[in-house]
Amino acid sequence: MPNLFYGYKDLEPVMSENQLMVHHQKHHQAYVNGCNALTEKMDKARKENTDTDFRATSKEFSFQIGGHVLHSLFWNNLSPVGKGGEIAGKLEEKIVEDFGSIERFKKEFNAVALSVEGSGWAVLVFEKVSQRLMIMQIEKHNVNIFPASEIIMVLDMFEHAYYVDYKNDKAKYVEEFWKIVNWEEVEKRFKI
């Protein structure tokens, strides 16, 4: 489990201490526990040379490890209100080049986030083949991923990410997200 580089109260009022603690300590921890349990199951089957349903195990492992990796990225692309800097440098230039403006980028990102059906993520990626920033929607933690795309920013749209604070008002959660984006971290992940 990764430690947060901020305290549980430090994202308030956008994300309450209770919301952050439940999300980090319960939900993210469950994905780590799931990865560990599946690793032990696979190791045991290999050691004992027994059969197991590797198709189902592989699919479940993909879900669990995807949950761990995406949550780890999520925590690091958040910062206390007013501490995350501004979109700047090469990232700002590329956003304007690919989307037309920062406002257009945020509008498209919000639309993708709000159209997540059930559980998933809104994700900004740098697609290496076309050399473009793109917004993808990951279903659950492991479906609809653009291969070879570098993830540079994520927004968790699972209900567990916002329900304590925002109930069923997903739009308010997405709107408030922009106040706690750690643009310095997002810029570090952007490599062109």
Q: What is the mean predicted local confidence, pLDDT? A: 92
State Rg. Answer: 18 Å
CATH class: Alpha Beta
Strand order of the largest sheet: 2-1-3
Tell how many strands the DSSP assignment holds: 3
Which consecutive residue ranges, at least 5 long each, have pLDDT under 50?
none
Percent strand:
5-15%
Sheet of most strands: 3 strands, antiparallel
Order of H and E elements: HHHHEEEHHH
> What is the percent of helical residues?
40-55%
CATH architecture: 3-Layer(bab) Sandwich
The gross shape turns out to be globular
Structural class: alpha+beta
Number of helices: 7
Number of domains: 1
How far do the termini sit from each other? 29 Å
In the CATH hierarchy, the third-tier topology is known as minor pseudopilin epsh fold
- State the fourth-level CATH superfamily: Iron/manganese superoxide dismutase, C-terminal domain
Task: Please write out the topology.
Layout: H1 17-47, H2 54-76, H3 89-99, H4 102-114, E1 120-127, E2 132-139, E3 149-156, H5 163-166, H6 170-177, H7 183-189
Antiparallel strand pairs: 1-2, 1-3
Helix pairs in contact: 1-2
